[in-house]
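SAMPLE LOG
Freezer: B-3
Tube label: C17
Construct: single chain, 104 aa
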Amino acid sequence: MTIVQPNNTTAFLNRVLIVLVVALVIGAGWVVVLYNRLVNLNHNLTDTNGQIRAVQTANAELKDRAFQLFTSQNLDQVAAARGLVKDREPRYVAQETPWSLASR
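STRUCTURE (predicted):
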């Protein structure tokens, strides 16, 4: 013999459905928040890459200017203006102490 109690099963199913719907709404809201963060991060990365390229360009221009300053003609002119003479046989200072780490 089967006893049907419709109120007990529907109340339990209603509670389960309410919990699942609430979880679905919270999950959908969280996905929207994560998507907005991802889009903001992509925009920030694009801006940062642009700034890096601008700094790299400025760095290349500064290096170019520095190399132009130190060409052999400019160095010869600076040396002549200051009365410097190019030494054909330079003597270097030598230090005859063994390495501190190798001597142990």
